[in-house]
Amino acid sequence: MLATLVDEPFDEPGWVYEEKYDGIRVLAYKEGSRVTLFSRNDKNRTASFPAIVGAIAALRPSTLLLDGEVVALDRHKISRFQLLQRGVGRARYAVFDCLYTNGRDLRREPLLDRRLELERSVYESDVLILSRRLSANGLQAFRVAKRRGYEGLVAKRLASVYVEGRSREWLKVKVHQEDEFIVLGYTAPAGSRKYFGALLLGAYKNRKLRYVGKVGTGFTRNILASLYRKFQPLKRKHSTVEEIDGLQRATFLSTRFVAQISYTEWTQDRKLRHPVFLGLRDDKGPKDVVLSGDR
Fold first, then answer.
1. Could you confirm whether 174 is annotated as catalytic?
2. pTM for the full model?
3. What is the mean pLDDT of the chain?
4. Which H or E run includes 37?
5. Res 43: pLDDT
6. What is the pLDDT of residue 294?
7. Which entry of 20, 172, 214, 284 is annotated as an active-site residue?
8. 3-state SS of 49-90?
9. Confidence bin at 185 (pLDDT 50/70/90)
10. Distance CA 55, CA 123 (A)
11. CA–CA separation, 204 vs 117, rounded Å?
12. What share of the chain is helix, strand, coil (3-state, %, to 5)?
């Protein structure tokens, strides 16, 4: 179940407001002692997070299906995708929904009941976290998220059932500007820089791929080298976006990689201002990268 992005916080009766986590969305299946983790694009991530697997295997219910986010927390207990992507710190599982337990399918039951079952089935540890409710008031919850430096908040209707796909029963409001963009290519390096200068970025708008700017910061030397190697098999003669097809000293790529980018705002011509590269995402594909007006 995916949340729909909205522009402003709100407060409505019958809704709850939770911290929005900056990590990798994962479904966790428990059958007896066997636990399997899958990302939202059906990648098996079980081997990537053995501590999470062990913690879920130790839970009491014989069968479980949990929905949550694998995160890495900084020293202020704030989730940072960049830390997770670079393997810094302990990976934790922030659980926010329980879809199945002990032979009982909960997906058609309201979120209120699913949360109660989640709290009965999962106990917090240094690996497992129950998603934080910020405030009963949505406007106050947004102020809390902003003060603490969270990525944003997710508002959920307590009466909502669990449905696959994007829904307006769950809404997300961002505090910090951070999103995924498609890597369209890269520019040539300058000065002492090696491998490449900046990544060319794009996203879908009205089902058409658009150029949204380039990012040249946030890279270490090792990251530059690693990305450069990954990009070589994807080189193509022309860009997939007409706007940059004639860009000088640029190498164009087939649209396979998705990058997580932070930025301050959008310019008037709809380009990213002050973007910073945070990492590649392997849990989302290019078709998932849609500009907010289309979501």
1. no
2. 0.80
3. 93
4. strand 34-39
5. 93
6. 54
7. 20
8. CHHHHHHHHCCCCCEEEEEEEEEEECCCCCECHHHHHCCCCC
9. very high
10. 10
11. 38
12. 20, 40, 40
Structure token digits, residue 94: 């922030």
The residue with tokens 């097809």 is 245
Give DSSP secondary structure letters for 116-178. Answer: HHHHHH----SSEEEPPB--SSHHHHHHHHHHHT-SEEEEEETTPPP-SSEEEEEEEEESS-E
pLDDT tens sequence across 145-184: 999 989 899 999 999 999 999 999 999 998 888 899 999 9
The three-state secondary structure class of 113 is helix
Q: Which amino acid is at 152?
A: G
Per-residue buried b or exposed e for 263-273, using 16+ beta carbons within 10 Å of the residue's own CB: beeeeeeeebe
* Token duo for residue 158: 């307590």
Report the SS3 class of residue 196. Answer: coil
**Overall residue count recorded for the chain in this entry:** 295
Tokens of 206: 């009205």
